[in-house]
Please model this.
Amino acid sequence: MASSFQQDFKVGILGGGQLGRMLIQSGIDFNIPFAVLDPDPSAPCSALAEFYCGKLTDFNTVMEFGSKCDIITIEIENVNTEALKALAREGKKVFPQPEVIEMIQDKRRQKTFYRDNGIPTAEFYLTENDEAVKQYAHFLPFVNKLGREGYDGRGVQLMRDEKDLEKAYNAPGLVEKMIDFEKEISVIVARSERGEIKTFPVVEMVFHPVQNLVEYLFSPADVSVEKAGQASAIARKVIGDLNMTGLLAVEMFVTREGQILVNEIAPRPHNSGHQTIEANMTSQYEQHLRSILNLPLGDTDILMPSAMVNLLGEPGFSGPAKYQGFEEVLREPGVFVHLYGKQQTKPFRKMGHVTILAKDMATLKTKATLVKETLKVVS
Ligand SMILES: Nc1ncnc2c1ncn2[C@@H]1O[C@H](COP(=O)(O)OP(=O)(O)OP(=O)(O)O)[C@@H](O)[C@H]1O
Ligand SMILES: [Mg+2]
Model:
């Protein structure tokens, strides 16, 4: 018998930022009804769906929101997982599963999970406070990470020598061997409720040396077929071991010795998958929806090589956002601008991104640089 698809359900998204916004944008093609919860009344999703303003970490707020939805998902990990567990017990579909979100919220539990499951990751020790970090002078150079609530490079600090130990975090965290990596790569993998798994081709991330935010991203990554295969296999293993339904981004290091180590994971659409909107057969956003709605997963093949540039608030400007150089970049063939609808800019705030398509790497690099130099968020 042929399948049937009816839109008699509502998908609730915890978080109303740019990832939610692009998820809704993609969901429109399947005519999916959405509700969104976010503490900011002017969040990027606020005008695009049934919108509720409230705290994502508050039990009652999440319960009340969830009761209005049939399928609940996230676009940010910092949410009340007790409420999500209670909603799942009531029969709501919650993807990714609350237990997975809860584990990922804590980098200490993430690292322990990799170790317990034989997933390659940098050597580490758990630390309870700053004094404990200082006991690891013999382990230098290392990276001190906060267990919880770090993001976009906050909650991560590199410690090269003994005098850096003074700034150790005084909260539960970990110390992790500093990896002299050749590249940072990411694989986005999806797993549907029925257990189908698909990975996107490996991408390469180039971080801003100071802000610790992705500055450029290239797809596909410049790695050997063998390395790409290993990275995809690791991503499949991680999502399989988690028994997770939904989309998972797996950030990895390729070491100078050619080893692949998992750095961290994010159970949702990810900054390293924005380019899939234009550059791949299926976007990460549609793939996320397919996976949580238990639909067949889409083909992830690359249509054309691409680069992605985050559009960050220009330092020195705070206030209502203006996009300088907008028309100039729109004149360029193969340049796709995405603005997130944030009214206020501030230094380094993620205000949008630009995807660039071109047949060869050299053109991608030239155009990515041109976009970075031309398009600026000012006020
Ligand atoms: N063990 C390590 N060795 C060397 N560099 C590291 C190590 N761990 C993290 N880094 C660097 O710091 C960056 C941020 O670390 P991580 O991804 O753990 O933090 P985050 O703040 O959660 O990240 P995100 O920016 O993805 O939100 C990494 O992308 C990498 O460049
Ligand atoms: Mg990271």
